[in-house]
Automatic annotation (TrEMBL):
Residues covered by region (Disordered): 204-237, 262-283
Pfam families: Sld3_STD
Species whose genome carries this gene: Dichomitus squalens (strain LYAD-421) (Western red white-rot fungus)
Residue ranges, compositional bias (Basic and acidic residues): 273-283
InterPro entries the record matches: DNA_replication_reg_Sld3_C
Alphabetical list of Gene3D superfamilies matching this protein: 1.20.58.2130
Protein name, entry field: DNA replication regulator Sld3 C-terminal domain-containing protein
Domain DNA replication regulator Sld3 C-terminal: 147-296
Length: 297
């Protein structure tokens, strides 16, 4: 049996002191707040993923993602013929619904979410509710800082591109942590997706026309008996993690090229800070993630 361990400390949901009427009106009710007492382990894992992805880093720091997921435990003891190692950890099954390949994560922020923003439809699920909350909050905050006289459409497109880039980076960091976690847990992690899970992901993440398989392609090997193209073997968790590390390395290279253009100004600013006795953190967000989040694990 799979369950979610209780927290060591808890905050009562029925406070002794009631909120004032003005405070009640200011409470945010845009996000789905499930009843945690009746929440299943599957719903808990999904909620943790969405909150760490879409809520601000200040209240959902990535350092606490793994401890939050490790609250999911198996309360039943393995049988005499089944060892703890072979039984596996329940997170292997629970995390399948939110695991993404590097290409699927890229499509999510370059195709699916831009389409949702352009259509402006009502949220269809919990993730869309979180997405719209994060988008509207960041959009309103950025629009307040825009200088007067700037073209609204161009400013909106620039803000949207920066917002998508920000959350794609967040997604990549979370996916890397999830893959690191599953690799470290006991159980068979050679194939993180079953065939049904792969089909569900393929349906929810349609490929663009340039990436869709076509009959005219001759490179695919076909089964001689059926004439059907053979499905490629599923990637292991290690291979998926390596693809994310390659993406991170590419971003690191692009960042170093961009930062070299402003190196003179940066060095002069650093010299001024040192003269004032101030210490600055020159690490980029990728170095901070690797050194402050991944290495302590």
């Amino acid at each position: 049996m799979v369950s979610v361990a209780n927290l060591r400390y808890s905050v009562p949901t029925n406070p002794v002191v009631r909120w004032l009427a003005t405070q009640e009106r200011n409470l945010n009710k845009e996000l789905p707040y499930p009843d945690e007492a009746a929440e299943t382990p599957e719903e808990y894992v999904c909620r943790i993923y969405l909150q760490f992805l879409w809520l601000p880093q200040s209240i959902m720091p990535l350092q606490f993602l793994i401890p939050a997921l490790l609250r999911v435990t198996c309360t039943s003891q393995p049988s005499a013929t089944t060892s703890q190692e072979s039984a596996g950890h329940p997170l292997h099954d629970l995390l399948r619904a939110i695991l993404l390949t590097s290409r699927a994560a890229s499509q999510k922020y370059h195709t699916r979410i831009p389409d949702l923003i352009a259509e402006e439809n009502e949220p269809a699920d919990s993730e869309e509710e979180y997405m719209w909350y994060a988008y509207q909050k960041d959009k309103n905050a950025e629009e307040e800082r825009l200088p007067e006289g700037q073209v609204e459409y161009e400013a909106h497109e620039r803000l949207k591109a920066a917002w998508l880039e920000k959350y794609e980076r967040r997604e990549v960091q979370i996916q890397m942590l999830l893959h690191f976690l599953l690799i470290s847990l006991p159980g068979d992690h050679a194939a993180p997706y079953t065939k049904s899970a792969q089909a569900a992901i393929a349906d929810s993440l349609p490929l663009p026309p340039s990436l869709s398989p076509t009959k005219s392609k001759k490179r695919k090997h076909k089964d001689r008996g059926t004439g059907r193209a053979l499905d490629p073997p599923p990637q292991s968790l290690e291979e998926r993690l390596e693809s994310y590390m390659d993406k991170l390395a590419m971003w690191q290279l692009m960042h170093s090229v961009d930062s070299s253009l402003n190196r003179g100004r940066h060095m002069s600013g650093s010299a001024a800070d040192k003269g004032k006795g101030q210490q600055t953190d020159d690490r980029d967000w990728m170095q901070v993630f690797c050194e402050d989040v991944v290495e302590p694990l």
